[in-house]
Design brief:
4-stranded antiparallel β-sheet, 3-stranded antiparallel β-sheet, 15 strands, globular
């Protein structure tokens, strides 16, 4: 449990494994989360190429088939032709995840598979259960499985929000003979608004 002054909240954190430390950045709570929906959170409207304070929770961004046209996760596959230096023969494919179409951000994977094809991704996302602020700030961590295109979730609950998830491998799990990609822990900071307290 992090005991912080009431005017501060946890925003982002990273683990520095080489120096064995947790790096924490904080910001004023009134700049991020208030009990009412009267704070400003800027989303990037890529259709107009500008920051828009209402973009993440604009109900007009819901498409006719019920999808939300805000920040969402896509999978990009690039096929490179190693024999050609002028990029002829290269192709790219962009696909949305079929089982998770809600807004999300902060994607992460097991660092051991960085640069290789991975099966699992973890993202901060919204559950869509709140009456107001349905799409941001995030209150859910989603584990996406790429082969079967499935998703499993953990939700922080009412009046709680989550930061950026980070994957930590279990000790000894990097042994290549017994490697399991999702053998580890997801760390995330949960900000409980009603308690004005953060949990790791």
């Amino acid at each position: 449990i992090f005991k912080m002054p009431q005017e501060r909240m946890l925003s982002h954190y990273k683990i520095d494994a080489k120096r064995q430390r947790l790096i924490v950045m904080t910001c004023h709570a009134e700049d991020m989360l208030l009990p009412q929906s009267n704070f400003t959170a800027y989303g990037y409207d890529w259709t107009r190429r500008r920051l828009d304070p209402e973009y993440m929770n604009n109900l007009s961004l819901i498409t006719p088939n019920g999808e939300v046209d805000t920040s969402h996760l896509v999978q990009v596959s690039i096929q490179l032709n190693n024999q050609d230096n002028d990029n002829n023969g290269c192709s790219a494919k962009v696909e949305s995840f079929k089982d998770w179409k809600k807004p999300c951000d902060f994607p992460t994977i097991n660092p051991a598979v960085s640069g290789y094809k991975n099966r699992y991704s973890y993202v901060g996302a919204c559950s869509g259960k709140r009456r107001t602020l349905q799409h941001f700030p995030f209150d859910t961590v989603v584990k996406l499985e790429g082969i079967e295109d499935s998703a499993s979730t953990w939700c922080a609950g009412k009046r709680s929000f989550v930061g950026e998830p980070i994957f930590i491998s279990r000790k000894g799990s990097s042994n290549l003979s017994a490697f399991v990609e999702d053998n580890g822990y997801i760390l995330v900071v949960e900000y409980a608004v009603w308690e004005q307290r953060c949990y790791l």
